[in-house]
Amino acid sequence: MPALLLFITANFYSCKKDTQKSKTDLLTQSSWKIVKTEADPGTGIYENEPIDDCQKDDAIKLNADHTYATSVGVKCDPSDENETGAWSLSPDEKTLTVDSDPATIETLDDNSLVVMTSDVFGGVTYRYRVTFSH
Fold first, then answer.
1. Domains plus CATH for the chain?
2. Which terminus of the chain is more exposed, N or C, with fewer CB under 10 A?
3. How much is the pTM?
4. How far apart are CA 4 and CA 12, in angstroms?
5. Phi and psi at residue 97, in whole multiples of 5°?
6. Where are the beta strands (DSSP E) in 78-111?
7. Digit-coded pLDDT (tens) for 27-84
């Protein structure tokens, strides 16, 4: 009996595949929607920023060929339109650039993407963190 148990256990683990996805696979598996926005107005502390109802159904789909397409649901402004463009991932896979706008990837997994950007105004660095989900 121990030989049979050893055989079954060995076969179970040898058939188990490594299912770790690449960052590109994670980014391109399905559309992303904004679920949370935060801003740090130079204090070192992030504060929640409201998301307009008209933005909650907007989505961005990053494609494997490094193009993207946005899908605008309810329009915040009558001139809002779907957009297309290009995206890239830095060689160290820490920076996601959409068109010419880079963002640092803080978290990326099967369900969420968190990116951080920053701007300097009047000598103060403002940081913004956006959380996306599928």
1. 21-133 (2.40.128.270)
2. N
3. 0.82
4. 12
5. -115, 125
6. 84-89, 95-98, 101-108
7. 999 999 999 999 999 999 999 999 999 999 999 999 999 999 999 999 999 999 999 9
